């Protein structure tokens, strides 16, 4: 991996939400899927093999990881260090090797693996009646602002814009983002919010979890919210990074 | 109000000192007067109607405010948002509406009002034998430095300068600011301290309260201390901002 | 003393490790030697008289100092203030006088002295089989990184480089610094590590104490580790500053 910083950012983003997870490795890449301890939210990420300078996986391997410990080890590397991950089968260790740009420093760390019984959930493809795209920073600010007032947030989506509404002891809060307004004259791509909607809807979420999700803002500039009334769990995707 | 940031700064400056207060609104502006919960200090501020781009108050209205809640709502706005405050009579809500510069975002917040029994104190005009003007930053540093040593501060004012004195378990501290010294060659207005004195005096204050007062340093560059022996309570004014 | 900031940095660096110490003053300078409260580490520093613009000491004087209180007083000065230290014999006070550059402000502080029974240890001159020189920042990062994994650190020194090794519940960490690699092309003096070795060795230390020592990184760019197997206590010197 050319940049140790990327994996560090990913693990930092999820470590407050999930403490343990399985890294499923096959010849195509590394897949992680985990629910938080209260089974409210589901985290998945997929590091494709072409994200790595060199990727080799001879047989499928599932590595049970303590995410907090992995975050500690990743902090020991510099962001622009080259990172080499190694595990053998059978084996109970995942090796991290950080090589500095200048070649003067090599950090080798071994992380003890855990035996985790994790069932991989298969998520049915669903149609979402409302898809919202906005800047991560804006989404993060709205969630943090409203969290000072209430515990839950109602996202009300119509063709002209989106309202984020909360209710608390001190009063109420309602932030409206209008469709199609450019927020930055110099940048043609800058927009307040993009909406792809087939039916207006209004859904309520726990703000605490949304704030966990906003930690992934370090990974992307925009967030896409997929919402549908008929599905048990609405999805919120932080945009993936493409190389 | 053109700049939501101003009201935010004011409320931030007082929220650690007073938790509840009444905003008295009439056709000339908004007046706040409140004592802290220990009845040691008195906070007043006056937002004149011309500070607002548009100000309308058809009848006198007293709004009982939870200052901490109001600070939370004000934090939800950006400093350069336009802020619209609205209350109706009868009514138990104060509405805050933040409109972003670009027009893409509108935040509407309702703050529940409280019934507060507040008597408005009338403060007799008094003559102060000693008036000191100095930079807020310098006053703040002196108070914070001496607070690491003792709990109270004696301000001793003479024609040549001012001494700030404290006494604690570890020893003593005495900071002297000399009259008439320029602290910055490039700026003719830069001065260490200005003193207007009719009689030397020495007064002792609780440092904890002075440190609360220094939070208003965000509002002004200079602070004026009005001190008089004969008055029960010496006044410390943070300079008002003029528009 | 021309720069109050220097003494502030020194005291800040040691105040978490030792709470009380004796300043031994004679005509040549001020000497401090103190063990931490667990008697694991020994701190010494020596301020030579030529470090001061003016230095006068008519008879030997030992001043028992509460280091935490002294740190509080030193924080009351600005880094570029002139600092005048005064003590008389007999006397139970150490006076600090900070004079601002512009002359507008004088801070006078008195620190109460303590009666401390301190024996001055004489440290025998020893030969060290391994002397390592490296950047303070690098040493500090290695110690902090490994402290997230384990409590102790093994420093293993050979002719080709140095390994810093730790072991914890989550796994192991091993950071290797290679000899002779330049870390910065523009600066000829920049190097990863310099080693002066007569015999390979491997010694284990408490990371907690090494991290206390790294607080002295504000005083110097490089650290020199003196290690020898036969000596009960290996020395770690943070490079002294020369004027």
Structure explained in plain terms:
The structure is a homotrimer of 243-residue chains. Chain A is of the alpha+beta class and 243 residues long. Chain A has two domains: 4-112, DNA Polymerase III, Chain A, domain 2 (Roll), CATH 3.10.150.10; 130-238, Proliferating Cell Nuclear Antigen, CATH 3.70.10.10. Chain A is 16% helix and 39% strand. Chain A has helices spanning 4-14, 67-75, 136-147, 207-214, and strands spanning 20-26, 29-35, 42-48, 61-66, 82-86, 93-99, 105-112, 130-135, 152-157, 161-167, 171-178, 193-197, 201-206, 222-227, 235-238. In chain A, the strands form four sheets. Chain A has a four-stranded antiparallel beta sheet. A four-stranded antiparallel beta sheet of chain A has the order 12-8-14-15. In chain A, a hairpin with a 2-residue loop joins β1 (20-26) and β2. The longest helix of chain A is centred in the middle third of the chain and has 12 residues, at 136-147. The mean pLDDT of chain A is 86. At the A-B interface, α3 and β11 of A face α2 and β7 of B. β7 of chain A pairs antiparallel with β11 (171-178) of chain C.
